Amino acid sequence: MPQSVKHLRTSWALSLILLFGLWTRLSGFSSHQLWFDDAWVAVPTKVPLGEAIHMVNTTPLFSIFMRQWILWGSDATWWAQIPALVTGLIAIVAVYRLLKFFGSTETLSLLAALVIAASPIVIDYSTRLKQYNLDIIFACLILWLAEKWRRTPSLRGALTLALVSVTSLLTSASSIVIVAPVLGVAVLLAWREKARRLQAGALLAIVGAGFVFEWIVWLSQLSNGLYVGWRNRGYLLDTRSFHKLAFSLQTMGSQFFHWMLDLPTGHKPDPDHHITLLGLSISALVALFLVTLVAGTLWRYLRRPLNTPEPLVIAALALAFSAALALVRRSPFGGGRTDEVIYPALLLLMAALFTQLQPRLQRVAPQATKALVAIGVVALLFVGLSNRAHYPSI
Predict the structure, then answer these.
(1) Per-residue pLDDT for 308 more than 80?
(2) Percent of the chain at pLDDT above 70?
(3) Structural domain for 172, as ranges
(4) Does residue 9 lie in a domain region?
(5) Is residue 361 part of a domain?
(6) In terms of CB atoms within 10 Å, which end of the chain has fewer, N or C?
(7) What is the mean pLDDT of residues 163-186?
């Protein structure tokens, strides 16, 4: 097939995915008052900027932008929802471009874009006044810049990566799960290659200074009540009793893919705290799958630690770091919206795994790959259709 025809088909397919994503989100636009959780985002518009900047903790730049956006426009809910819709659609394209850059096939890249278009949690937060879809975009950008710098080292590349990383942290502290692994790999690269040491030093210094500044001004003021809420809902490891431990493990595991792909959890939703055999089984299967994704990539590097880290090491470390933060009770896992930041890394790892398994599948059943892709497309369309955005009313 001529390259121009393939490009045209891909453009049409991506456009259709975008239109599907837009359609699933437009139903969430509201003419009613802001939902209480979103109303907090609008509160800083009622006070001067100097006071408003201290009314947030984890999203200073995003909150300042939303304050100005609402002031520039109107008090209407639909106006305040526009940035979330735009970032939700850009996230679809960003994930597609990221997978293509990392060498995934057109089919897998488009399938990953469809995941973002159809994901219930991404759809939901495409009409809320939150930064979570922006987390996806920043994660894609950081992973792209980090890989670009890994392939072609330059001081300019390192400085660009540093500035984008600091901006992402100031926009949303959730980005730490992507930024920290980037810094870790930068240290490994500097240890292996002397020519990178100045670049890595600049990267570490700039990002470190930015994070310290954010910590002093905002993150150190974070309320302990936030952690208590996450722990009580099961998104942080809870060791206060055996029941609470089992409940938190069940919740983190079973709900990770539930929010992302509407997969069953095997137990009743929050605030029900019952533990079920099915819920624990699903959680164990999810944990096994995620560990396989991470361990496979990291093991290949650990077998040859003197080699340059391969492209997916950062993605694997990001997924592992995100889960580790929940286990040490610092950041939630399995809660959906705070997981969005690791979706790009997860999709990269899943695409790589499928690519590795594809030759074996074709030997066993030549049409297996096409069948799996077709099933995936139909399933994702069904998920998107079943989870169209609905803005809650007061």
Answers:
(1) no
(2) 98
(3) 16-386
(4) no
(5) yes
(6) N
(7) 97
What HEC string does 319-376 produce?
A: HHHHHHHHHCCCCCCCCCHHHHHHHHHHHHHHHHHHHHHHHHHHHHCCCHHHHHHHHH
Query: Residue 183 is which amino acid?
Result: L
348 closest CA partner among 308, 294, 309, 295: 294
Residue 50 resides in a domain: yes
pLDDT tens, 273-284?
Answer: 899 999 999 999
Kindly tell me if the per-residue pLDDT of 177 is higher than 90: yes
Q: Which of 50-59, 165-174, 198-207, 299-308 has the lowest mean pLDDT?
A: 299-308
Best CA proximity match to 345, nearest among 102, 132, 122, 85: 102
Number of domains present in the structure of the chain: 1
Tokens representing 281 are 């089984």
* pLDDT > 90: percent of the chain: 75
In the DSSP assignment, the letter for residue 47 is S
CA distance 89 to 29: 15
Q: Which H/E stretch holds residue 237?
A: none
Confidence at residue 307, expressed as pLDDT on a 0 to 100 scale: 64
Most confident of 265-274, 348-357, 362-371: 348-357
Preceding peptide of 83 cis, ω within 30°: no
Q: Does the residue 7 lie in any domain? A: no
* Cβ atoms of residues 295 and 289 within 8 Å: no
Residue 35 CA neighbour count, 13 Å, CB half: 17
Using alpha carbons, select from 258, 282, 284 the residue that is nearest to residue 270: 258
Distance (Å, whole) CA 178 – CA 172: 11
Q: What is the pLDDT averaged over residues 176-182? A: 98
